[in-house]
Design brief:
Number of strands of chain A: 20
Strand content of chain A: 15-25%
Largest sheet of chain A: 6 strands, mixed
Order of helices and strands of chain A: EHEEHEHHEHEHHHEEEEEEHHEEEEEEEE
Number of helices of chain A: 10
Number of domains of chain A: 2
Oligomer: homodimer
Shape of chain A: globular
CATH topology of the largest domain in chain A: Creatine Amidinohydrolase
Helix content of chain A: 25-40%
Chain lengths: 392, 392
């Protein structure tokens, strides 16, 4: 905030709200973080769903203001009550006193109450309730405030991971690796992609993770045979596994809001000469990316060296738009290890490093590892065997 | 479009893109639907992820334009190829010819190409790439076009369900009911909420559905004991089921993009007098809502009658902000069966009708049914026993 001349930050997107407050929002939510330590932060959230949200993921910020309309009866609650029940009672009672309906009006009220009425404030514009009128409304209500968009600043801040974030992503990786191992153990000729994906996903559930999916439509990011050429979003099909088929997964699961993105490839039976040669070349690329991922190295420099290495090592026609990326609450995050990103790496950045290769009629091969950039050398979060796994 | 004087509609949010095109988007996507039948519709989507998206959920629109950067090698592909592989080759080759990077510029190009250069067009503003500059850019590039926001219009159109939408939601309901039945069958004293939720969620996966969760943080919308007072978003905990405890679930699973929202309540052992009396009153309310949900009935009228009925039937202090809502691709959808919604119901609307009651220290009770409004009387999608289920 000091560097950017900001009096306060306002988070609005689910990722930025969760990051700034520990509260996992459901519906419109603002988190106000003032620059001055003497000014108290605040959360503005809906009374309808966030009662359980606040109860279940208690934020570190104690001033929570509710808007909307929702009824939970608290009149007959008698001790002994547990903490969750007490929080719920306090939330419901505070809302019943004010019964505000509009989150934006409540935000402006809290800003005034805090004395944040002039200077520049940063508003996360990525998912802003009533965005088309917000900027005009704040100008009208608080004319001496200059509100500027800061979703990019939030992304920059989130590039460097805290210990707790690394711990959660590591747990997501462990669960994913167990699920992949269980799926590989179950692999046999004639098994369908759907059956294989079910072993993978139900293991994730059993281990306390959540299978990640897209609009509820996609299944596990797993493919068999020539379908491995279809990037990372395959819908599991009725295709049956054959001898010599590639088996590829790319993605993971999530754990307390944090997912992971890793990939491994296997073959049912002995790999062919081409499968082996290509995989080894790709794997050399990832190895070089990991070695180069040190503080002050430039993203684009790593990209160029890695593509060159894969070409030299066995895939002379190799083309790729990036060989890795940051990762966090929103999934893909900066930096991008690509040709036009000149970000210098820093201690504490978490990177997913990968050199996928997709060829129609042949399949897709890849290794993707997750590391944290450290002065003392890369800290691997992925532990699973990095070889092209041959399943007997 | 005719009613609203629109020359074309542009869908941008995942729900509206999926609804208009059958394409399940990944990243920025536009769907252009011109008013005139002679003008061809178009999809603008990213080459990086949507290759598999287009392959896996083929849209009915054949003119798909790609932007971005992604490489899949197609040079060595030889027949026999399957349809997916052929689509993928065509997509990759068409992108390699143009290599456009910017979706918005590509949209403007397609509008010009189609001769849509004057009059009013409706742009779904709900999730618009680079929304803060979009409106200025379209004004600059196509000055005779008047672009207006239409996310509300999309919501109105989507209130009436197609047969295919009802079929998918019905399948989601069936899967949810199987999972709830399996969870109830497994219920025993001392079982944790997490164990109970695992039976529910793994059954959903096995039946081909996707457990719905929120930011990957939430588990199944299931609660035991006094925790049933925590609305619908409980994180499954280590709480152990006791005799006399309420067991409540509220939500469902999704199937090919369509979820469901239903609820049932059970008790381990014999229900108490209060549990029984309250449940019966709530259940009478839902029954009345279903009876009243006929074409031309007003949402607010149903609300008032239902709240009155629950009060008369056994919960005199009953308070509620709505007793039902529409449901669709985005989850909650209009109409809201609440005090301020004067929508007149229409044939083909799908409604989730519910009268939840939450009391701290006691618990939460509810029945939620899903129906389609029909002239001939309500078509129930939920089939599971509507009684307060007593588990022996």
């Amino acid at each position: 905030m000091v560097e950017n001349g900001l009096e306060a930050l306002v988070a609005t997107s689910p990722a930025n709200v969760f990051y700034s407050s520990d509260l996992c929002p459901y519906g419109d939510t603002f988190v106000l973080l003032p620059l001055e330590r003497e000014i108290e932060p605040a959360i503005i959230t809906s009374i309808s769903a966030p009662i359980p949200v606040v109860v279940m993921s208690p934020p570190w910020i104690s001033d929570v203001r509710y808007f909307g309309e929702f009824y939970t009866e608290t009149r007959w609650a008698k001790e002994p009550l547990d903490d969750s029940e007490r929080i719920l009672i306090a939330a419901q009672e505070s809302w019943e006193l004010t019964r505000k309906l509009n989150p934006t009006a409540l935000l402006f009220e809290v800003l005034e109450e805090r004395g944040i009425i002039k200077g520049t404030i940063g508003v996360d514009e990525s998912i802003l309730p009533k965005s088309h009128i917000f900027w005009r409304q704040i100008k009208e209500r608080l004319p001496a405030i200059d509100a500027v968009p800061v979703s990019r600043l939030f992304r920059e801040i989130r590039m460097i991971k805290t210990e707790e974030e690394i711990r959660r992503i590591k747990t997501a990786v462990k669960i994913t690796e167990k699920a992949w191992e269980a799926a590989l153990d179950s692999a046999r000729e004639g098994m369908t992609e759907k059956e294989f994906a079910y072993v993978y996903e139900s293991t994730i559930l059993k281990e306390g993770g959540r299978p990640t999916s897209h609009m509820g439509v996609y299944g596990a990011p797993i493919a068999l045979g020539r379908r491995t050429a279809f990037v990372d979003l395959a819908f599991p099909s009725d295709y049956r596994l054959r001898r010599g088929d590639l088996i590829r997964f790319d993605g993971g699961c999530s754990y307390i809001g944090y997912g992971c993105d890793m990939a491994r490839t296997a073959v049912l039976g002995e790999p062919s000469e081409k499968q082996k040669r290509y995989y080894d070349a790709l794997s050399e690329g990832v190895q070089l990316a990991v070695e180069m991922a040190t503080p002050r190295e430039m993203a684009s420099k790593i990209f160029n060296a890695v593509v060159e290495r894969v070409r030299d090592a066995g895939i002379p026609h190799y083309r790729r738009h990036h060989v890795g990326h940051g990762w966090g609450l929103e999934g893909y995050n900066p930096p991008l290890i690509g040709p036009r990103d000149n970000t210098e790496l820093e201690e504490g950045m978490l990177l997913c490093l990968e050199t996928p290769y997709y060829e129609v009629g042949f399949g897709g091969l890849m290794l993707e590892d997750i590391i944290v950039v450290k002065k003392s050398g890369p800290q691997y979060l992925t532990q699973f065997n990095k070889q092209l796994c041959a399943i007997r």
